[in-house]
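I'll show a typical protein example:
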Amino acid sequence: MAVPSYGGAAGNITYLFNLSNFTGVIPFTWVRVVSDQARNEVYVCDGNLVYVFNAFGMEIYRFGEDDRLGIPLDVTVLESGDLLLLSIFNDGSPSPSLILCDYRGEFLGRRPVSGIPDGFGTFTPTRMVLRGEKLYLADLSQMKAAVADQVGFIHESIDIAEILGMKVKQAQDYLGLNGFDADHEGNIYFTMPTLFKAYRLSANRTAESFGRPGGAPGRFGVVAGIAVDQSGTIYVADTLRCVVLAFDRDFNFLYEFGYRTFRPGGLVAPKEVTVSLGRIYVTQQGIRGVTAYQGISN
């Protein structure tokens, strides 16, 4: 079904399904969603479990409740088909570790995040994005990021607050980052809801921002998740306005879609957004779970 929308090509956005199992829609709330483009599968981290869905949005497997896997905060799929989890543990470990497992969740090894440079301070990543051989890690609350390899060794540390010219007290007042993503060109994307802005941090670590507060189409209420597709289109979820906004690579507003309702195709307090193979996955509050839409670009 077509989704209510505003903007030039937005009428091509259609509702597909909500991630489900044989009992119905799974009532996820603000979970982490990752797509495996090579196998056209979707992974969801929720609590101590990882759920796997096929291309039709039906659950085909789940795993977890293994102390060696910890509590997964994020997941990504390696070229080999094995999985890399970003997990926390209750064993006194100071920061999350990378856990290697096979596609069925069988433990293969633990890789502590290492190489944090002196002077970088506390770095407790809660978000992970794999682009090629580079693993982008983000500590959202501390406004820090790092570029690591797949064994967890950090090659570049990035103090986002410092790049934006913020002092420590300012960074604390702004309550950190919300959305986080990276593209294959080395650009990093993130949102700051308290500033009503989204940002792109270029490969040379120059920051550009876009967005203005307001309730009209193209404006930000409470900006949340951010994702960029292979064409360079940037998608931003707005929790307050209950829409997903699309911008081109020059930050020009293209269209937005969604509306607040529990009916199919609607959005209720959306937070995370993931794009893959022309599809847009949006996480929501309550029984709405994760909704999939057909986009207009790949």
In short: The radius of gyration is 18 Å. The helical segments are 160-163, 168-173.
